[in-house]
Structure formats: C-alpha cells, structure tokens
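Exam revision sheet. Question 4 asks you to relate a sequence to its structure. Input first:
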Amino acid sequence: MTWPQAERRPPLLQLRDIALTLGGEPLLDGAELSISPGDRIALVGRNGSGKSTLMRIAAGELAPDRGTRFAQPAARLAYLPQEPDLAGFASAFDYVLAGLGEHDDEYSARAMMVELGLVLASKPADLSGGEARRAALVRVLAPAPEILLLDEPTNHLDLLAIEWLEAHLAATRSAFAMISHDRRLLADLTRATVWLDRGATRRLDRGFGAFEAWRDKSLDEEQIERQRLDRRIADEEHWMRYGVTARRKRNMRRVAELAKLRRERRDARRSAGLANMRVQESRTSGALVIEADRISKAYAGKPIVRDFSLRVVRGDRIGVIGANGAGKTTLISLLTGALAPDTGTVRIGSNVLMASLDQNRMSLEPTTTLIDALTGGGSDHVTINGERRHVIGYMKDFLFGPEQARTPIGKLSGGERGRLMLARALSSPSNLMALDEPTNDLDIETLDLLQELLGEYDGTILIVSHDRDFLDRVATSVIVSEGDGLWVEYAGGYSDMIAQRGYGLAGPPPVPAIAKPERPAAREPDRASAKRKLSFNEKRSLELLPERMDALRKELDGLETKLADADFAMRDPAAFQAAMDQYGDVRKALEKAEDEWLALEMLREDLQS
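Answer key, structure tokens:
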C-alpha cells in the first residue's frame, strides 16, 4: 500500500503493518497510520472495525501482535480515549493538571475549563457524562501537543461544546487524528481520511467530505473484481469437469490454479453488511398531530419551558436543539403528553400512535437478552408491517449475528445498544416517532440508512439531536432553546437556523471589552485641564495603526497561502515550523494593533461627546 503524500513528509507518528487478533478473530491485519506536521486526519470505519483499538496502539497503550510503532522522541502526544477515567483525582482541575507538562500554562487550562462551564473544584464522581468529557478535552488540548489522538471527542457534548471544540481544533497547530460519527465536524476540519475496513487501512489525501464517494467507488470496483474472480472459478471448474475427462490427463498447473482461486475467494474478508431498517407503520393520523397552547413547565422555580405554543401537522420533522440541561427531553415529553404542563394545554390529534426512543437506552435491564428485548419474551417472532418474521432474521437486518440472540444487553457495545433500541422503536406500529438522540454511537453507514428511513417515513417525527448534519438532512424545522425557558421555532435544519438567527447556540459574537481610561477623581477644573484632548502620540497612532493593520493582514494572507502548500512541510520541515511560528506572532501583533486602535477610537469619540 502506498500513501504518496504521507510517506514523503517526515512523520511525527507512524504505524506500519499492524496486526492484532482478539477472541480468535483477526481484528487488524496490515493496518497503517502516519501522522505528519499539519495533518488533520479522519479515522473512519464501521462499528467494531477496530478504530479505537488502532488509536490505542497509536497512543502506545496497547501492543500489537505484529507491526511497528514509531514516534518522534521530541513530539508530545495527547490521547483522548472514548471513555475517560477520572477515578483517583480529588477534583476535575486535578485531573486536568495531571495532563500538563512542566512548562505548560496552567492559566490556559483554567480558562478552557471556565469557557466550557466546568467548576474546577467539582468531584469527578459528581460530574455528568458531558462534564467529564469536557474535562478530558481540556486535559489533552491545554498542553497544545504536537500530536492529538481523539476518540469520539463529541460524545456526550451538547452543541455549544461541539461548536467550541470545532473552533479550537480549527485554530490548533497540533496535528491530529480523530474518530467521530459527527459528519459536520469531520468535513469541516479534516484534510485526509484513513478508512479501516476488514482489518486493513486505505488512505485518501482529502478530507472527509470526499470520503463517501471514494468509498462507494472502491466498493463498486471490489464487487466487479469479485465477479470476475467468480467467473474465472466457474471457467476453471468447467475445464476440470470436462477437459480433464476428455483428455484423460490432468493438467496439474490448472488444478493448482483453481485451488488458488477457490482459496482466494474463501479467504477474502467481505465488507460488512449494511443494516436493513424498516419502519412498522400504523394507519395515517389526522392532519393535526399536536397542538400546544402557551405551555409552561418549571422545576424548583427554574423555568424549563415558558409560554410556548406549537402546531405540528402530519409529515412534520421537527428537531429540538439546546445545551445540556436546557430541557429538550422535557419539551418532547410535554409535546407527546408524557408529562403534564404546569400551565397551558397540549392536544394530541386523532389516530396518533407513537413509538419512542429514549436518550439513555435505559428502558431495559442489562440482563435482558437481545432476543427477549426484540420480542418481549416468550416468542421467537416479530411482526413488521403485517409480516410475521423470525426474530433471527430481523436481528440480521440490524447487523446482529444468530450467536448474539442470547447475549445480555449489558454486554453489547454502545453502537450495538443503539442499533437494538432502534430495532425496538422501529418494530412498533406508529405514525409519530419521538427520538431522543437516535444517532448516539451509530457509525456513519448506519446513520445514512437511518436518515433514508426517516425520509421515507410517512408519519411525523420529533427528534432531539446534537448532530448538525443529521438535522440538516432530516428536519423540516428546528426548535431552539434561547435560555430562561424560551423556545423558538425556525424553518429548515440547523444551517437554516444559523442563517436566520445569524449565530449558533453560543450566541452572537461578543464585542471586545476594551477598558476605558480611568478618569481622575472629580475636582474643580482649571483652565489647563478643563478639557482633555488626544495627545500628539495618540493622534499619530490613530493615523498609523490602520496602515499597520492592513500590512499585518497582507502578511497573514501570504503566510496562509504558503502554509496551504501540502508539500511545504515535506520539502523543508524547519522552514514550515518557522512559518507556523511566524503566523502565530503576526496574528498576535494584528490583534494587539486592533485592540489599541479600538481603545483610541473609543477615547476620541468619548472626548468629542
């Protein structure tokens, strides 16, 4: 396998010919990964393909059965596991500090924690999943290492934190490889894609946005090659059956060739199948599905929903967006009648039959077997759209093998639990689906099928999700938390909401807070100080700073063009690093000049008034 650009640049971290067998089955077989300065890599593959295992090997936490790992001695590496372990630390800040080096800036870590809404003294045991994930992100991002390995960094994060993470990674100088099911994050940030498929890796030196078309083309070519192999085997078998008998003489070369072809077909590891999802639809509901009139709900005096009205008609697909704790699940519960409002009314239309998917996948006991979860126990059949099917066949539609039928739910992976809960929700007759975080832990291929299924669903859908791409593809409108119990509906998906609102969940960009010059204590003015004026130097600075800012911007543009050259780091690593450092210095100089000009301009206006 050749990776042209990655091979030519001096790597910071490189894995070659990695093999690992788990449970008697080869998980990795010839996998490779190379991370060079400036690399931003998406590591993609089906659930269970070994992405996290390869990431652990890259981080040095797991030794492979075969292959080599090389890391530049001077390059610092930070690894974010899928399930960070905060045990043994007295506080969230102590956990973060443990990830800092001797010369790292403790203030930067403090500032990041405050930006993410973390209380430094919080005990790890008291942190929610989202808070623990944010603390783990600060621990790996604050040191600004040369290499970042990120395994599902958006897990448990709300959209506010995801937007913060995306902005930070967009500005970082660290090279990184990232596993994520968040399509938007991968498409916006990555410049290369490594596809882990059937134990081996293939690299595309383009970002995730180009991956899916490339993957589909590769699979199509593989299918064509497999058909050619099948035809060759059929031809050889025909010769064996008739040619050998006719001549009474065996051609051992052709016998050996046939054996080789059969072995090649037998040993080929086929691509994993795709989930085959179908919705159990009920009879059509009335035109009006839900009507909420000025509903409100509060807990302990805190408003969760305040004076909210909504009319949902048949066929609507409504997304619900907000920060963790904003009350998204509460709002869905109010709209579906599962929770009574404190004030206002909710009316459910005629013939409405609802199927739901809860966020935490906690509606079943961990000891419940997969087959009982799907059938309700005491049966080995399910009924889908009037068709009675054996549960093993239905399991296969969701990529479960027959041997997993008696597996307790507690032993399933996160992705498998997600598929199971979808299988349960979709097997219930419905014309209204309420889905709370349905995309959690699903791989990209399964997400594609879920989106296609929801697009073909004739009923009405309410969706809570932090997946921006998913909302853009599925939602006809989104309801957004504006804070203090206020919810507002916007037409279209997440991107349409941004266009109408002018900003994301983080709110409008803050105006830089420039401290005004302190005024002297009040006293009786005299002629010399009756009126403050700009000094000569201040006037001169106001005249010269715009020219300086223009020059700095042009210098930044030139450096950006220079750094955009993909081969620059390969040709001259020292010059590449010098250009990166210069870019940071020029950017800081521009920010300082802009702040200085703004302060002087405000002072001038203040004095004139």
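Marking note for examiners. The chain is about 40% helix and 20% strand.
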